[in-house]
Amino acid sequence: MANHHQIVIIGGGNAGISVASKLLIKNSKLDIAIIEPSDKHYYQPAWTLVGSGVFDIRDTERTEAEVIPSRAKWIKQKVTTFQPEQNTVTLGDGSTLSYDFLVVAPGIQLNWGEIKGLTETLGKNNVCSNYSFDVAPYTFETIKNFKGGKAIFHNPHTPVKCGGAPHKIMYMAADYWRKHGVLDKADIHYWSGAAKLFAVKKYEDTLLGVCERANIKLHFMEKLVEIDGANKRAKFVGFGDNNKDKETWVDFDMIHVTPPQSAPDFIRQSVLANAAGWVDVDKNTLQHVRYANIFSLGDASGLPTSKTGAAIRKQAPALVENLLSAIAKQPLTASYTGYTSCPLVTGYGKLVLAEFDYNNEPMETFPFDQSKERWSMYQLKRRVLPWLYWNKILPGTA
Ligand SMILES: Cc1cc2nc3c(=O)[nH]c(=O)nc-3n(C[C@H](O)[C@H](O)[C@H](O)COP(=O)(O)OP(=O)(O)OC[C@H]3O[C@@H](n4cnc5c(N)ncnc54)[C@H](O)[C@@H]3O)c2cc1C
């Protein structure tokens, strides 16, 4: 059957490619198809460094053809619907594809349109965002051209990929302005839809110190609903006990926006979704809770951990082992513990390497206190991790 594959992987991003490569290393005879509509693959973690002016945006992009394993078949389509009872998915051109096993990894959806006025002004009027390949270089333009006034950094009320990214760029901007004698003239504000700065206290304590040294003012439980780019003002609505429904218009000289995010619509609307819209998998085995031949990992999965590439590095080997066990009709024994990591740049040459598990307990790699800002960890992010991504993680050997 031409339209059948033993394993079908949805998404040729960080998760989908890592899993395909690892499976083929274990067994080169597996029949794997990757459904991926885009020509391009992005190393998104470096976009924070692009926005900080220390990484070339062109080095974050490769063609999908370069990263898809040669022994996997690339189907250049998008999935639109699922029929798990029939073991089929429907593609954008209306055709169907059947599978023995399915891996669902289409990433997270960026809902730019949920903030009124944002799409019209993004990339101009000093409205920037590192969450877009096209706009991340403009973040640095904006930071460089800022000569004082009010700077806003925004974090939405939804889950996001890389929970640290909305504030990492704020610390880099503050350090840039300090180095260029602008910090005294900068009134920096962080407006966030979360209840606190960072989930793990050990690292949050350090970050609060970083905010203090740049005199950054923190506002929590605030939802950004509108941006008026031409008049440089943003509207927030409070939703905490103390500020519920309170509307605030804030003037700005620059604003860095992180779009609200959700599971992709075609997942949310499918029978694979949990109540929140994400793919409903067991948090340890990564197997779907209702369909035993479906697995999921990465940003689209319902795993209750912070959505990062670092988490995928630990999810992929567990998923691969369990998927191979399922093929062999053996019990699933591999378990993912919720490990995730956030390399929190706190300035040029400074980084706090947060690593933690499902219980927000630190799970550190190095034999020193990782809550301290370190030059060595900055070099890890700036030089080692990008190399590791292209040369080890995507080829499945790390
Ligand atoms: C600014 C920023 C900073 C970050 N910083 C870090 C960091 O420091 N450390 C870290 O570990 N992580 C970081 N991340 C997060 C990291 O990039 C993601 O967690 C990771 O890319 C998720 O991998 P994924 O495969 O789940 O999704 P993606 O890599 O986004 O890939 C999803 C793929 O699915 C495809 N797809 C979408 N819809 C469909 C469909 N209908 N059918 C088929 N395919 C589809 C897409 O085209 C895409 O290729 C950062 C992200 C951003 C944006």
Q: Count of helical segments?
A: 10
Gap between N and C termini: 34 Å
Q: Which band does the percent of strand residues land in?
A: 25-35%
| Helix content class | 25-40%
Look at the structure and give the mean pLDDT: 98
Flag low-confidence runs: none
Main sheet overview: 7 strands, mixed
Q: Which shape, going by the Cα principal axes?
A: globular
Bound molecules: flavin-adenine dinucleotide
Using the CA coordinates, give the radius of gyration: 21 Å
The CATH class assignment of the largest domain is Alpha Beta
CATH-defined fold name of the largest domain: FAD/NAD(P)-binding domain
List the domain count as a whole number: 2
**Class derived from helix and strand content:** alpha/beta
Count the strands? 21
CATH superfamily of the largest domain: FAD/NAD(P)-binding domain
Assign the CATH architecture of the largest domain: 3-Layer(bba) Sandwich
Report on the architecture of this protein.
With 398 residues, this protein is α/β, with parallel strands linked by helices. The chain is 27% helix and 25% strand. It folds into two domains: 4-108 and 263-335, FAD/NAD(P)-binding domain (3-Layer(bba) Sandwich), CATH 3.50.50.60; 110-261, FAD/NAD(P)-binding domain (3-Layer(bba) Sandwich), CATH 3.50.50. Strands 1, 2, 5, 6, 7, 8 and 19 form a seven-stranded mixed β-sheet that branches. Strands 10-17-11-12-13 form a five-stranded parallel β-sheet. The chain has a three-stranded antiparallel β-sheet with strand order 14-15-16, with no helix packed on it. Strand 15 and strand 16 (247-251) form a beta hairpin. Helix 1 (14-26) crosses helix 9. The mean pLDDT is 98. Bound molecules: flavin-adenine dinucleotide. Flavin-adenine dinucleotide binds at residues 10-16, 35-38, 44-45, 47-48, 78-79, 105-107, 130-131, 161-162, 165, 264, 266, 298-300, 307-310, 312, 343. The site of flavin-adenine dinucleotide (FAD) has 36 residues, from helix 1, helix 2 and helix 9.
